[in-house]
Amino acid sequence: MRDFLLAAVLALGATAAMAQEAAHRTLFTNVNVFDGISAELLSGADVLVEGNLIAQVSTSPIAAEGATVIDGGGRTLMPGLIDAHWHTMLNFMPISRILGENFGYLNIAAAVASRETLMRGFTTVRDVGGNCFGVKAAIDEGLAEGPRIFPSGPYIGQTSGHGDFRGPNDVPETPGTALDYPQRVGNTLLADGVPEVIKRTREALRMGASQIKVMGGGGVSSLYDPLDVTEYTFEEMKAAVDVARTWNTYVAVHVNTSAAIKLWVEAGAMSMEHGFFLDDEAAKLMAEKGVWWSMQPMDAEGEDPFRFESPVSTAKYLEAVAGLDQAVALARKYGVKTAFGTDLLFDAGLAAKQGKFLAKLQKWYTPYEALKMATHDNAELLALSGPRNPYPGELGVVREGALADLLLVEGNPLESLDLVADPERNFKVIMKDGVIYKNDLP
Predict the structure, then answer these.
(1) Which of 28, 76, 291, 342 has an alpha carbon within 20 to 30 A of 258's alpha carbon?
(2) What number of other Cβ atoms are within 10 A of residue 391's Cβ?
């Protein structure tokens, strides 16, 4: 692993100059455009990119003297993919290593994994837990390659909640006890009571969070909180939301039960993550309040179920995933705003299948619905961060004035969503912010 990381870092250095110098003008010709919104492709189009913006989209030839010309050959040009539930610092190693590994090493590993994320066509991720600020800065400055990152920073959780990774004998806590390692490096923060919740939320915002992530209910990878529990009292919930609102942003909540969802919605949180046990009442309330459901298409069986080191986590995972079909049905029934994410944790093999998990959406959605969710709709969710948005501009669409995050796809993903499951073969060009990171065309 260490030799692999060293080689990858050297490769990053060789390509950093390319990342720092956005193509001045790039002209895509003869492409069929999926704009992220319409169910119909715009056939026989030209698309001009100037700097990091899409300057022109036209079905008439575009004259762009001096531009780099890419003949699309009738392939599909579409927006870069967006993963609304990603963990930059947690997706590439087992949990037992990540919890105790040197943080400098973790940052290097996360930078390497971030390039792989970009090469899968995911040009933007919403990071919902972990101290990814260093990796994000390296990517933004061209020192490393990877997607745009909307960081939550440390996720905030209660004692005994999802995010309390201390040992079984580390409670009761005594005054003056040092923070455990995941808290010291800023991957997670524990807060109990309104004053602590306020302080920790402000600390995350001070670090640069674009939105706040709170652990609001029982989780799978944590060992001390059954799935049925609601985490935080209503007053604590409202404290986190109120602080986020003072910074003109929002709270995303790890939550599963309908009871917890309803409390968090009433407290003002705007994004419910997972929600496997969604019921009619909670779904209806979310729709009425305009609250997002951020879902993950996970499997209980087959090739791609999550694997856990603890049998406790395995049992909880199977219980949670069993509720997914009903949750999707209720979200569709009531018109709940729905976002797509993967939450691929603690397993580099699963992380490599990020696009395959997007393709799993076709169990419930048409290819158009799935692709719109992973582009335009996810971008709409990210925009809730308002002035905390680290990348002002329009994402998730192909239209004039939008940020130039683009994929050139071999084939038509609106007809075959499985194309996104094999990005190495099917994504011929990957552009982020006007920079071409991959071009497999002659």
Answers:
(1) 342
(2) 18
- Cβ burial of 240 (10 Å; 0-12, 13-18, 19+) is buried
Does this model's pTM top 0.90? My answer is: yes
What are 380-417's pLDDT values in tens digits? 999 999 999 999 999 999 999 999 999 999 999 999 99
CB contact burial 135-156 (16+ within 10 A = b; e otherwise) = bbebbbebbbbbbbbbbbbbbb
- State how far the Cα of 437 lies from the Cα of 414, in Å rounded to an integer: 24
With residues binned 3-state (H G I as helix, E B as strand, rest as coil), the percentages for the chain, rounded to 5, are: 40, 20, 40
pLDDT tens figures, 282-310:
999 999 999 999 999 998 887 888 888 78
CATH for 2-79+396-439, among 2.30.40.10, 3.20.170.30, 1.10.760.10, 3.30.230.10?
Answer: 2.30.40.10
Whole-number Å distance between alpha carbons of 332 and 337: 9
Q: 80: closest CA among 21, 133, 34, 116?
A: 34
